[in-house]
Specification:
mainly alpha, 6 helices, globular
Length: 102
């Protein structure tokens, strides 16, 4: 089992790897690792929603084990803030549309 802290560390490491690959003109690999980093970061946000000493809903737990960024965004509880941010910043919405194709 991975903790929120473990997920945050892995997300940062994968992002650093993605940047390194992008600088080396390895765009396809950089894109893959950047998407993986985003997935890990969203799962870290989800991890803070799981309460200690409780048994989470099975459907909720099963839903975490996906690689769909839109689904993970919804589970993270960040969707309302993200919607507001994308309305204020069209470029963020455009970048998200690219990221979700990962």
């Amino acid at each position: 089992m991975m903790s929120k802290s473990d997920l945050e560390k892995l997300a940062l490491l994968r992002l650093e790897d993605a940047i390194f690959l992008l600088e080396a003109n390895r765009c396809s690999s950089a894109y893959y690792l950047a998407g993986y980093s985003l997935e890990l970061a969203l799962k870290a946000c989800i991890a803070k929603l799981v309460q200690a000493n409780t048994i989470p809903d099975k459907a909720f737990m099963n839903a975490i084990y996906v690689h769909k960024l839109d689904d993970l965004l919804g589970l993270s509880g960040l969707h309302p803030a993200f919607n507001a941010d994308t309305k204020a910043d069209p470029q963020l919405a455009a970048h998200w549309a690219i990221a979700t194709k990962w």
